Structure formats: structure tokens, C-alpha cells
Give the backbone structure.
Amino acid sequence: MSRSMPYQPPGAHTISKFEHLHLEVFDQPQQGSAAIAQEIADLIKDKQAKNSMCVLGLATGSSPKSVYKELIRLHKEEGLSFKNVITFNLDEYYPMKPDAAQSYVKFMKENLFDHINIPVGQTHVPDGLVAAGEIEAYCQAYEQQISDAGGLDLQILGIGRTGHIGFNEPGSHINSQTRLITLDPLTKSDAANDFEGQDNVPLKAITMGVGTILKAKRIIMMAWGDAKAQVIQKTVEELPTTSRPASFLQKHNNTTVVLDHQAAGKLVRYQSPWLVGSCHWTQSMMKRAVIWLSSKVEKAILKLTDADYNENGLNELLLAHGPAYNINIDVFNQIQRTITGWPGGKPNVDDGNRPERAEPARKKVLIFSPHPDDDVISMGGTLIRLKDQEHDVHVAYQTSGSLAVFGQDLERHLQFHHDLMALITSKNGSEDDETSKSNYTDWSNKVDDFQVKALIRKSEALAALRYIGLEDDHVHFLNMPFYETGRVDKNPLGTRDISLVRQLMKEIKPHQIYVAADLADPHGTHRICYDAVMAAFAECQTETWADDCYVWMYKGAWQEWDLTDIDMAVPVSPEELNRKRQAIFKHQSQKDKAPFPGTDDREFWQRAEDRNRATAIQYDLLGLPEYEAIEGFSRYFPTKDNTE
Ligand code: F6R
């Protein structure tokens, strides 16, 4: 099926004895989506040539959106017709009105049906309003409709983090048919953002069964991003089990799983390719292997023996670079050199083996933060050090973050404003309370809620950075337009977004840029913000400052780098960790309970501390110094494959 180049990191192998499903791995989701859309288009055209109907099983959710986008493009630009297509959607929440914002009927219209020439009568989405007593008959009729149409020629699927396909949650039987099911708590928490809170997510859904799906002649399951890496690893590499219904796809003889390299990242072929076949032993591959071995045999690096290497599939490495003592020392030194308490470079020392240059001693630093709090959450300790070590630190908030403010916080601020205005007018004695009230009403009618929410987040971000010691004129609010949709769904990255970032880079001419490279962000905002920084930086390559600029990538609130990928590890002392926590606390609208907490119950400051402590523990276990906490950064090289 692959029409564009599948992703192949060095040392990886296409076939692995650990994999029980056929995979295609692409560098970017767009490439995988284009390959899927092309296969669908080829099938439709093939059926057209034979004068027959093409029966497609469709999915909703974030995964297939880019496939649908590409199908729309093929329709509009290349004349692909959908007149001979019949579609059956996998599922629908229950109960659900077809015109509700979260309904899959609405999703399919907005993301596909309204933009192609498919006759409405040829599309089918399970009815979320069937009377309770009629559900069973309705589900049987849905099955019948599929077989009357000739059965599914091609079914596309996403995968939930529970391992569900359709809404076949853990416990679903391999032979299950279309039916009403109860949603898993993890699925509800993943859907919480669409429903403004988990409590509003319907308890149930109507879904095609695993058996219904397995009857399709061809199945393509797709998954993008790190958030899916774990469930993909288990689905692909472990045996079929009802506790992960997607694993039953192993029983189907014509299934392909299409992944981007982030979603494939936990597979043995990437995590420990030496177990799969011969490896090209680059420094980074050696580092990966030794860290893996050390954690597998639970020994510090310098204690690893030839036998440890031999008994754990690393004899090839031993032959190429052994004995163990040499490999151990080499990798130990590599990792030790990532540690620095001087993230802006240590002045007046030999910097040959340090992550950052010594000169210039006082650097211009530009930190990009997707939302107004990612900076302190993800690199607050480093930010504090950079400022304390007297670098010229600027922070740029890429989006307003206005979507993530609760209505009740807005009310509280408006109340404050109202009372303040009333107080001022009563002091002036010029207006009575009624007039001031009407002023307030006039004003609140003119300003959009989201604009006020943006101001709330701005005031919090300023408070956090003032606490760290940054001057207000070193804080930049870019308010990138792609974010301002008022919905969880964002617009694609536009030229105006990139130019806002580029202008700031050109103005500051930084020696260091920090960028959030967090592609697991559930709403895609971080990915777009990352793309904007990289596109802007690429456009600045002709500028002299860009030649002398190091780009450091940090992970957002959701995850940390693999130890292998950390090029700079900044220790955070207990005192600094406490200061970092206080800075995070200034983001009051995100405290106690954030509107978009993701699937993690901990508050952001707790996640940050747990994660930084966990990194420190990993360094400690490898036999390196024991710190309270560590923040990790990976260096971006424009010419290197940074995804390695
Ligand atoms: C949607 C569906 C679900 C999703 C799955 C992944 O029709 O049946 O199985 O495919 O929950 O959702 P996303 O793609 O949003 O991660």
C-alpha cells in the first residue's frame, strides 16, 4: 500500500519475529494518511471499473481526520467520485442526537460527507436515538444492512488507549456483533474534552462488534503519536486477548496497521533492534543498548559484564566494540557529559565535552511555550537557572490558552472587575450603581469570553515569570491565530502563525532557543506550535545569528524523553524544585482541577515533579550522581534525523 517512503530508522528491520500484525510505519501521520486515502481511492476506482458498489467501514475520532481530508482533496482536485460508495460507520454514542456537537453523524458530515458527492442515502451511522427496547433489533438490522450491501470491502479503524476498536472495550468477544456497550472509564476520560468534562460523556455507545469488523475483506488500522505507542506495542507484539480487542486483528488475514514512528516507538524493532537482527552500531545505538541492558539486568553501567551482554542478545555489540569494560566506559562518559548545572554554558571552562558553549558568557535565550504554563511546568528549573546565571531570557507564549479556563473563573474575574469599577465610580461620586452596572453590561457584551480568558492566563503567566525574576518586556504573547477557534479543534498552521514566531526570532537573535517537542499533546496544539518554531527557524537559516544558535527541545506536560535522547540533563536542587512549584502555582486557572487535564489525575506541578524525580532516579540507577530531580533536553540539529 505504501506510496511514499516508509520510515526506517537506522538499525531497524521491517519484519520482526516479535510482531504478529503487518505494519507500515511512516515518518509523519500525513504520509500514512495519504497512503491509506490512496488505497481507498484505488479500491473505489477499481469497483467503478467493474460497475459495482464499494462498501467502506468508517471510523471517527482524531485518527482518520487526515485520511478524510486527503479523500476530499482527491475528490475536489482529482475528480474522485463517491457515487458508487456505501459507508457504514463503526459506532455512535448512546444516547446521542444526530445534530449534537459530539455526534458521529455530525462528525462525518463535517469531516467528509458534506465535501464529497456521496448520495446521503448511501451513508449509515448507528442511530443514537433508538428507543431502549428496540436496540437489539436495530443492531441486528445494522448487521443485515452491511451484509445486504455485500459486506465491508474495506474497514478503517483507529485504536483507543484501552485497545478498543470501534467501541469494543476490553472484555469484548472475538465473535461479538453490533450491540450496545458500556464505555470504559479510560475511553470516557479521553472523550472528556469533547463533552466539557468526563461526567457529561454518555455511559454507553452502539458499536459494530469485533466479529463484524473481522468479516471485512480488508482492514486498515491507523495510530499516530506517542500516546498510542504503548497500546500499539501490546496489540502488535502480544498474543490476542479479550482485554485488548484490537489484538483480535491478528486473526484476520488481510490487515495492515499504519503508524507514524511515534506510535511505533515502543515496538521491539525500534526500542531494542539488536533483538531483531543486525544493527549499525552508532554512538546513539550503543547508548540505547547499554541503557536498556542496565535496566534489564538491574545493574549500574560500570558493573555490566561480558556475560550480561552475551546473555541478552548484545554479543554483536560486544564483538564490534567490546570488551564490556570499554563499552561501559564509553557510554558512561557519554551520559555523564549530558549533565550540566549550566544550561546556558559555563563561562571560562573547556567546553569541548559540555552540552553548551562557554561563549558568549551571557546568552540571549528565547523559550517558546505553547500554552502559558508549559515553560514553568516542563523546564521551570532550567528557566530559574538561566535567569539566576544572568542570561538574557525571553519567554514567548505561542497561544493564548484561553480555551482552558473554566467559566466559573471567568465569572470570578468579571465580578472583581465589576466591583472595582463600582468602587471607583462611587469614590468619584459621579455615577450611581445602576449606571456602573450598565457600563459593565455594555462592556461585557462587547468583549468575547475567550478574550477575557486569555487575559486571565496572561496575568498568571506574568505573575509566574515575575516570581522567577523576568522583566515584563521579556515576556511575549504571540496569540497565534491557528489556536483561536474557540473549540478543541484547531485550524491548521498558517503563514501568519509562522511569521509571528519568525519576527520574534529576528528581533531577539537568540543564542539558544527552547521549543516544546511534545507530540503526544492530545489536542495537537503542541505539535502545531513545534512545527511553527521549526518552520520559522528554517526561514531564518540565512541570518548570521541562526548559525550560532543551539535549539533545545523539551517535552511538554505529558512525558519525558527517553534517556537515550537526552543531550542535556539539568539537575534541579530541592530548593529549585520548590521555586519551580511556586511558579507553577501562579497559574491558578490550571490549579486544583484543570479544564484539560488529559488522562492523568495528578495536578501539573505533581506531574512535573514526579517526572523530574523519575529522570534523576534513572540517572542514579545507571550509576551516575544522585540528584533530587533532572530536566532533560534533546538538541535539535537541522540536518540530523531528530526523531531517531
Ligand atoms: C471511532 C472509534 C474509536 C476510535 C478510537 C481512537 O469511530 O470507533 O475506536 O477510533 O477511540 O480515537 P482517536 O482516533 O480519537 O484517538
